[in-house]
Amino acid sequence: MRKILPAVLVAAALGLTGCAEKELYGGLTEREANEMVAVLQNANVSASKSSKDGKVWALKTRAEQFSSAVAVLHDQGYPRDKFESLGEVFKKEGFVSSPMEQRARLMYGLSQELSQTISSIDGVVQARVHIAVPEADPLAEQQKPSSASVFIRHNPDVDLSGQVGSIKALVTNSIEGLPYDKVTVVMFPAKPVMVATPASPIRSFTMPAIAILAAIGGVGAYVFSRTSRGKPRRKLKTLAEPGTPAA
């Protein structure tokens, strides 16, 4: 019985941890956490947020729904990409950059800011802007024009085809010397949100309940066996058969 009791308690603990929450992502802002909770709950996936200091937030879900939560968030472009601003790209450092490095930083900073701006358009799940600016050749009679490509992954329920002209104008006016017809915008629909089947309340309750009942039964059996050992056992007298003299 001493060996049975620890095993029963371990089984109860495992049953109770089956309904525990597991962290999905950490280091989130409250806005990011709220958006991700809303996306998961709309897909019938359990989600909650928590924070120790009110500044950095963590996203959690039920352990059995962890893989579904990751898939839903990935299809909707979460966690969102982090973009750098021109100020961050050109932050002061202790050494002087070469003109080529300064130019590369400028192109990178512009692409980052344009990607962030386009990502904020309603219906856009993910956006990238790639800029190609050829070096000026003083000996060439005609300089090669700059070009830009815009990649957009959007919500399949949102039609952004009417916004292509506005997006091209945004990129053209942000980069000096970039012709309008040298901007290419390609769009791809994201996967539709797969709504998960809600977990049955009976099923969610069954395993913890069985574990608790098993633990209670095991403890009760253990206590009964311990208390019954100290009591003297009564000897039962054997009834003599008819016609047999009593001893």
TrEMBL record:
Which GO BP terms apply? Answer: protein secretion
May I have one GO cellular component term? Answer: cell outer membrane
Membrane topology of the entry = Lipid-anchor
Does the UniProt entry include the keyword Lipoprotein?
A: yes
Location in the cell: Cell outer membrane
Name the InterPro entries for this protein.
AMP-bd_C_sf, FliF_N_dom, T3SS_SctJ, YscJ/FliF
Q: Residue ranges of the Flagellar M-ring N-terminal domain?
A: 21-187
User: Known PROSITE patterns for this protein?
Assistant: PROKAR_LIPOPROTEIN
Q: What is its main location?
A: membrane
Q: Does the keyword Lipoprotein apply?
A: yes
> Could you tell me the superkingdom of the organism this chain comes from?
Bacteria
Per UniProt, the keywords (alphabetical) are: Cell outer membrane, Lipoprotein, Membrane, Palmitate, Signal, Transmembrane, Transmembrane helix
Question: What protein name does the entry list?
Answer: Lipoprotein
Q: Which organism does this sequence originate in? A: Caulobacter sp. 602-2
